[in-house]
Design brief:
The chain is α/β, with parallel strands linked by helices. The N terminus is likely disordered. The two termini are about 50 Å apart. It contains 21 helices and 24 strands. It is elongated.
Length: about 650
């Protein structure tokens, strides 16, 4: 063991492998993606085999080797055979470390595919230009839309050529759906969900109608039998249930009359078998739909104005100054009312009040009073005196505010939410993901309050620049949530890196406000299953589960445009280009979709730049220059990536 590094390099020489640098949750999920769905040899480089997820990574079947080095140095890259590797994924460490490692790896192997994690996406785009074959991704940016949408109780979306794709469930599915993406949904048991179930042909609905209403179909008294909801058959043709949400265009007015003599025989034919086991209900379904524009969260301008005014007062003044200002303002308003009552002239009352506030009022002289030419009676003079004194008070208060804000540096400190904060979202944890989620909610016009226990967290300065209130401190969650005005919030998102901490925050939030929606970041799937079964109006997401498929696809050369969440499951939206020598040449829609796990939702052909949604021609074969947009499961996209690199 040396001071530079140690580990267990691959026992046998290895080539054409993929290297994952990191031992965090994202690295764990990424290794599983590569081994299980892409079936490629993987070598993992970790800083400590005993920390984070490194022990679990070592137990994954299919990992060629786990190498331990404290730093990502030249020696470490040589130990994992960087010269003969096909791809390198850098998913841990700072932006600077990942940039240095990516450039160093390219120096060893100019043709290697490099995918590196970057929090600063703008910097990542610039670094991509320096690499021959590289891509910069942000795990937090990939996962943030799903968390923000879950907090607002609506599905997240992916933008494709001006349309926003999203997942709709059950009754929310409209007639313009693109395809069914999941069925057998049981919110109490998420293991029953089937993503992209086997698809029926475009004529399946007519075949079912022919069976239902044909000569040999079941009938009932008064007309043809019509099932209230299509039920799955025993065979595999029923998987997917794409007809749900589209009832057959057969109404009572077109139901022919049935001859009475055939009713008894047919009724006996459809009588259920008492000994047969009851058929399992299919459960809910989910469908992919498209919006013309991304909807903004509706918040009235009056509510925003009230929140801004009260929050600004809280920011500029402390409690004592606010008391002084409120008392002085109340006195001025009362004096103004007295002047208006005595003179019955609103314009003159405003004029004299402003002069008195500025200290420029002309008092009555004794001679004027004796001559009867004074400005008014006793009560008017009292009112003017009150306004003048309050005007003198406002000047030092304004000076104190200016000194406190500018002189003491109050502007540079995080602030607590004001008493006017209402209908907001509380974001617990200002790491990379928490910062992204808070920023996205703020851009959507949703009031946000952040909570953070570490005063040195990198996200504090980012949300402070946006004017988002931050509750700091390491006290009990109950107290912190109270300061964040939990009673008046709409949702709480727990985004720390620890599952137990996130669950504690969610339970405390639900205890303090039983109606609040909670969204929790959880890595463990079993933990998430118990969470769904225990709490209602709740959701859980995993950052690594959302981001790992995108990293794996990028490592294989695919362009993943985004991920859509179906509860804890992930659906990938990818755009693939048919290039010369690609295995996609000559394939049609049936060839792509028949093995399962893939739906072609749009196509753009080489001769035209127009994107055709729901392209119905299942026989047209792909040619070089064509582009297709697919919705795919992780295994389905892995299969396409395998085809993509095959030689003709």
């Amino acid at each position: 063991m040396t001071s530079e590094g140690w580990g267990t390099p691959p026992v046998e020489p290895i080539s054409q492998h993929y290297i994952v640098c990191g031992g965090n949750a994202l690295a764990h999920r990424l290794v599983l993606e590569l081994v299980e769905h892409y079936e490629v040899p993987v070598v993992v480089l970790v800083t400590d085999r005993t920390r984070d997820h490194a022990p679990q990574i070592e137990q994954i079947t299919g990992v060629a080797a786990v190498v331990e080095y404290p730093n990502l140095t030249e020696e470490a890259l040589r130990a994992v055979s960087i010269d003969t590797a096909r791809g390198l994924a850098l998913v841990e460490g700072s932006d600077q470390d990942n940039i240095h490692a990516a450039l160093s790896a390219q120096g060893h192997n100019p043709d290697i595919r490099i995918v590196f994690r970057m929090f600063n996406q703008r910097l990542g785009e610039n670094i991509e230009r320096l690499l021959r074959n590289g891509a910069a991704l942000s795990g937090s940016a990939t996962a943030a839309p799903a968390f923000a949408a879950a907090a607002l109780g609506r599905p997240n979306s992916v933008e494709i050529d001006g349309r926003y794709l999203h997942i709709a469930f059950d009754d929310a599915i409209s007639s313009d759906r693109i395809c069914v993406v999941a069925d057998h949904i049981d919110r109490q048991d998420l293991s029953k969900i089937r993503l992209l179930p086997e698809q029926e042909g475009d004529s399946a609905q007519f075949v079912r109608l022919a069976r239902e209403f044909g000569d040999d179909g079941p009938v009932r008294q008064g007309g043809l039998r019509r099932a209230p909801e299509p039920e799955p058959e025993a065979g595999p043709d029923s998987e997917g249930e794409p007809e749900r949400g589209h009832e057959p265009a057969v109404g009572p007015e077109v139901e022919p009359e049935v001859e009475p003599e055939v009713e008894p025989e047919v009724e006996r034919a459809v009588e259920p078998d008492p000994g047969a086991e009851p058929e399992e209900p299919p459960g809910g379904i989910a469908a992919l739909q498209a919006l013309r524009m991304e909807p903004r969260e509706p918040i009235s301008w009056a509510r925003r104005l009230r929140w801004r005014v009260l929050d600004t007062m809280r920011f500029l003044t402390n409690a004592r100054l606010r008391v002084v200002l409120l008392i002085a303002l109340a006195a001025v308003l009362m004096a103004f009312a007295v002047l208006w009552y005595l003179n019955r002239d609103f314009g003159w009352t405003v004029y004299i009040s402003l002069l008195d506030l500025a200290g420029a009022a002309q008092p009555d002289q004794q001679a004027d009073i004796a001559a009867g030419t004074g400005t008014g009676g006793l009560w008017q003079r009292v009112a003017q005196v009150v306004i003048t004194i309050c005007g003198i008070t406002f000047a030092p208060v304004a000076t104190a505010i200016a000194v406190e804000v500018l002189g003491s540096g109050r502007r540079g400190l995080p602030r607590n939410p004001s008493a006017g904060t209402r209908d907001h979202v509380i974001v617990v944890g200002l790491g990379n993901v928490g910062t992204r989620v808070a920023t996205q909610l703020h851009e959507m016009g949703v009031p946000v309050v952040c909570m953070e226990r570490d005063p040195q967290a990198r996200g504090i300065s980012a949300v402070r620049a946006l004017g988002i209130p931050v509750v700091l401190g390491d006290g009990p969650f109950e107290e912190q949530l109270r300061r964040a005005r939990l009673k008046h919030s709409r949702a709480v998102i727990a985004l720390s890196g620890d599952d137990a901490t996130n669950l504690e925050a969610a339970l405390e939030a639900r205890h303090g406000n039983p109606d609040v929606r909670v969204v929790v970041r959880l890595f463990d799937d079993d933990f998430a299953g118990h969470f769904y079964r225990t709490l209602d109006n709740a959701a859980s997401r995993s950052v690594s589960y959302l981001a790992a498929p995108a990293f794996a696809a990028a490592l294989m050369g695919s362009e993943v445009r985004g991920t859509l969440s179906v509860f804890r499951h992930v659906l990938l939206i990818a755009e693939l280009t048919v290039e010369d020598g690609s295995g996609l040449i000559g394939l049609n829609r049936h060839d792509l979709e028949d093995p399962g796990g893939v739906r072609v939702i749009a196509a753009r052909f080489a001769r035209s730049n127009q994107l055709h949604w729901g392209f119905a021609d299942r026989t047209r074969r792909l040619a070089p220059g064509d582009r297709i947009v697919v919705a795919a499961t992780r295994s389905g996209l892995a299969r396409l990536n395998t085809v993509l690199v095959e030689e003709v």
